[in-house]
Amino acid sequence: MNKKKKKDYLILTINPGSTSTKIGVFKNEKSIFETTVMHSVKLLEEYDKIWNQYSFRKHEIIEELEKNNISIKELDVVVGRGGLFKPIESGVYIVDENMIEDARIGVQGEHASNLGCVIAYGIGWDYDIPAYITNPPSVDELEDIARISGNKEITRNSIFHALNVFATARIYARDNKTNIKDINLIVAHLGGGITVTALQKGRAINVNNGLDEGPFSPQRSGKLPLFKLIDLAYSNKLTKKQLKKMIVGNGGFASYFDTNDARKIEKFANEGKSEYKKIFEAMAYQIAEEIGSRATNLKGRVDAIVLTGGLAYSKLLIELIKTRVSFISEIAVYPGENELKALAMGGLRVLKGETIPKKY
């Protein structure tokens, strides 16, 4: 047996959020340490741009590891959360200066996840450890015909929950003793944002852009009627910034109610409160519609519909979706979105020689 495959690899994973950074240490597939480093909101506000938080966050992450007796020198690899880079294919990528520069300027937007690559690179540089990212939100494998919007001034592009989508697809394939490159899946990530992906032999040939297309979610408006949106934009009621916040952040459940907590909405729906029930069912209705669209992308050749993400814990939501799409294919449910483990598995595939990291 290859001795390399028997080695216990240590992998550090880093997933920055708006006011915190989740970190994890894995020994091969097993998590041996996970925590959320909470950053002082007051200190974060001192930085005019998210990017400028790099040194501050990196220092607090290293402090947390040392406090918990994690020897950074013993790590084999550091894997950071990918950000809003230029469109790239799925896979594991070596963090380099080009990637860091695109993350810094925010080629597809400013987001805390853009810090994942530079923090991984910084720790890797200090301790001579390789640094990678895997399947960032900017993974774009749309087939050419899917890029056509209907107006030559606008081209569709892909922003979705690629990290969890590909990780869950691999879990489904493993559980069914196959490979994602041998099957066609529809993977619906159901969370604060909702994206539904057509995976054809392991390639994401179509997906709704998670920011401004597809179903509404607990805090996003999804696809809206264009003429009414244009009228609102020119009504002088909202600034451009407020309008974008209405679509991403204050949309979905948050726009209808005083909360974006799907658990509360489901509770009220189950109690028979008609308005909550109607909106909850409408979200399921739109998710089912999007799944149906992905089935046509795959020409009906669908091996399974995979439901994942935090909302997949909702029994009511899953049943509402199943009643509308079960005729398409079998349905598999994998609740949650274990992003730290998904990052670790990307690094582990490289360490075991199962995949070759790509150059950005």
| Strand arrangement across the biggest beta sheet | 3-2-1-4-6-5-14
Number of strands: 14
In terms of quaternary structure, what is this? single chain
Summed over residues and divided by their number, the pLDDT gives a mean of 95
Report the end-to-end length measured between terminal Cα atoms: 33 Å
Helix-strand sequence: EEEHHEEHHEEEHEEEHHHHHEHEHE
CATH architecture of the largest domain: 2-Layer Sandwich
Regarding CATH, which class of the largest domain?
A: Alpha Beta
Q: Shape from CA axes?
A: globular
Largest sheet: 7 strands, mixed
The parts where pLDDT drops under 50 for at least 5 residues are: none
The number of helical segments is: 12
Radius of gyration: 21 Å
Helix content: 25-40%
Question: How many domains make up the 3D coordinates?
Answer: 2
Structural class: alpha/beta
Strand content: 15-25%
Going by CATH, the homologous superfamily of the largest domain would be ATPase, nucleotide binding domain
CATH topology annotation of the largest domain: Nucleotidyltransferase, domain 5
Q: What does this molecule look like?
A:
This protein is of the alpha/beta class. Helices cover 36% and strands 20% of the residues. It has helices spanning 41-44, 54-67, 97-105, 115-127, 162-175, 226-233, 240-247, 253-256, 262-270, 274-297, 315-325, 339-351; strands spanning 10-16, 20-27, 30-38, 77-80, 92-94, 131-134, 148-151, 154-155, 184-190, 194-200, 203-207, 304-309, 331-335, 358-359. The strands form 3 sheets. A 7-stranded mixed β-sheet has the order 3-2-1-4-6-5-14, sandwiched between helices. It has a 5-stranded mixed β-sheet with strand order 11-10-9-12-13, sandwiched between helices. The protein has a two-stranded antiparallel sheet with strand order 7-8. Strand 12, helix 11 (315-325) and strand 13 (331-335) form a beta-alpha-beta unit.
